[in-house]
Fold:
Amino acid sequence: MSRIANQIRETAAAVRSKIQRKGKPTLTFPLRSLANVKYQPKKGFLELKGKKKTRTLTVATVKTFAQTLRMMSQAKTLVEDDEIMTKREAYYVSKNWDEARFDEQPESDTVIDDIEALFQVNREQLGFIPEEKGGEIAGKLVVIDRDSETGKELRIDCTKFGSGAYSIPISVEHLKFETKAKFVLAIETAGMFQRLVKHGYWRTANCILVSMGGVPTRACRRFIRRLADELKLPVYAFVDCDPYGMFNIYRTLKVGSGNAAHINRYFCVPNAKFLGVTPQDIVDYKLPTHPLKDVDIKRAKDALKNDPFVQHYKPWQDAIQQLLDMGVRAEQQAFAVHDLNYVIHHYLPEKLAVSKTFLP
Amino acid sequence: MAKVRRTKASPKRKAAKKSHSTSKKTTGKRKKADKSTAKKSAEKAPRVSKETEPKLETVAEGIVEETREEASPLGSTAEDMAKRQREISVAEFFMKNRHLLGFDNPRKALLTTIKEGVDNALDACEEAGILPEVRIAIASGADENRFRVTIEDNGPGILKSQIPKIFAKLLYGSKFHRLKMSRGQQGIGISAAGMYGQLTTGKPIVITSRTARSQPAHYYELEIDAKKNEPRILVDRTVDWQAPRGTKVEIELEAKFQKGRQSVEEYLEQTSIANPHVTLALVTPDNETTVYNRASKQVPDHTREIKPHPYGVELGVLIKMLHDTKARTLQSFLHTDFSRVSSRVAKEICDKAKVSERSRPSRVARQEADNLFKAINQTKIMNPPTDCLSPIGEELIVAGLKKQIEAAFFTAVTRPPAVYRGNPFQIEAALAYGGSVPGDGLARVLRYANRVPLLYQQSACAITRSVLSTAWRNYALQQSAGALPTGPLVILVHMASVWVPFTSESKEAIAHYPEIIKEVRLALQECGRRLAVFVRRRRKAAESERKMAYIHKYIPHVAIALREMLGLSQHQESAMVKQLTDVLERSRA
Structure:
């Protein structure tokens, strides 16, 4: 932690010495956008290409510059005091800064993201935590945490939550794991997760179930990543068959996002595989469908054209093309057309039997 | 304008003589009568009555023709018609056509009366080289819609013998027959106001005048004999008057006193802007006194009378001049009666017209005037002299504006003299911008002709046309298509000329001559360029001030953050604020 505090100190010192030499101080940030990332197949995630933007202190930028420095100072305090602060709280703290306060939270969020990129760390390491929920776990996993008062070890058995589930904390770095499961199944919707938990699917299939609830949060991705790395478990994703499920949810889980490319190395699961639902499944399982919306078509074409991940994998390009040709999409819950538990008894076992054919 | 009408009258009169013997008789009789009275009374200006003659005749004719048109469908005989054909009194004509002279309604009548009185006072003072001081009093009269207007000046005074005719005879004056820059042009104004008062209240016009301290002050009460257009003297005596010199005119009239747009106050304010050498005082019916003090002690330069330029003369006028000239030959007529016609040019005109330069002018008038007129317009003649004009001058316009308008920026442009239809003229324009000028509406336009404000018929005026057609957006102002510019702006335009081409006798709008419109636009553009420099500079200064404030607002936060992160002292923090401020201020410069 003090490594980050030192980094902040060094940056501040550089700014000061530039001012003392009667120069205009600068801060250099990596450019945060999909245009500045490339897919690294060996490493398995989207990595920054190295385009930078330099913010020079001028009349026009003096406000943002001051805000960035004050937020850096805030981060340094958080790190030194081992304190945390949500982005919303950071926004409220800035109200003490008189003219330098933020008027809206998006402004402070951007500044926090800038600082995060500046130091190539994730915001949790700076003490800033998101408001969003991390995701839920059920199945054959023991999470080892610490009691916040006594500091004693806490063993959390994820099989003992009954019809409920274990909630992934915002920071997962301090956790340890024990498991005898064979694989991790990451599920898009809470509804499907509930069905599998209710029928004890984790017991029958000997696995860990994760509810991502849409696009997985950083904590959720990091949690799965550690399961994959430290327990050597394969990770299978089970999402809707539409461009959003494929590229927003699955792609972010596997290789990270463009906006947070500076931290993708920690927040991705490179060995994740796509179990389904695939366009071919729609045909094979005669699933009821909905027509693709305009926004779906746009997203699919955009992925074909701009997404470095898709451009690297021919099977994905074929899958998208197939989906576009069919012009339809299908949801996880569509298997209910055959039988409510069709997915447990037929679909998942059949797919898991041919895990070698999963899309990368 | 009266001049133009006069020229039109001549050929018409000829036609009338041929067709209506009856009308000829009537007018002929009157002509004789007029001549005799004129000769007796007006020794100094023998031509005056002669000149007014055609005008009255025209009036009579116009009515006669109208009557005939009414009669013909009924199949009247010439005898029937003759019974209805009779002389029209000036009073009748005046009351029927009072809108032509600016007496359309009680409110405007008050303004016109004051305007005529003040114009006369100022013209007289300036001609005598006196710094004018004019006091205007409006007092409530016998009933609600009657007012008594008093206009008193410190001018040269009027000779006793002239007083009755100047104030109680229409179309009598010194300004009509000469081509000279002055406020009044026609010799109608003040006597028309007196007549209006007489016709609406029955009260005479009262004059007090004195030419020097050593002379007595003469007091007159006058009426116009509406039938004969002759003064009728009710009271004529000498009085004690404290003023050493000057003229006081009192007229009681039906009027309406109102403030705001097109009011007496507005007229006086605008007069004082364009005449910074004048001091005006106004006493309203509520006994409030407003004084418009002079901002300059410089009486405008004397204007010189000029002869007409051949290009500005119409055929009718040319014929009349040929008749009236004292010159023996056509060549000498052209040379002596016009400006800018040398003997050589005169000969050239004669050659072009295929008329011998030795012909007698009166003979040419009857036979070859048409050819001569065409030849004049085909010959290249030098522009008329322009030293006959007396513009206000850039400095004095600005002084006048500053006196009455609180603004942040003033500029004025006096254009070099130019010529339209043979008449020299000169345009001046000025702008007042910012300060306490209201900025939320359209710009205010002040129009002047020979230093007289024009308050009515703004949209019909050539000046307005020029203001509208100027691209004010080029000068950092806002302007909707076809509208006046928006913003805290006052636009002043002055046209000085020996003959201002008004669109009507009430002298409210200037006619649309392309030369005039162009000159006004050029003057406005020059003003606009100067304004743009000012506005842009001011905007830049405001912007840089805003940036400075911005710097001073946020730099302390940079220093606070650095102090927090680096554990600096308060002293080091304030040193940093100073250093950083230096760096940023330097980078701006």
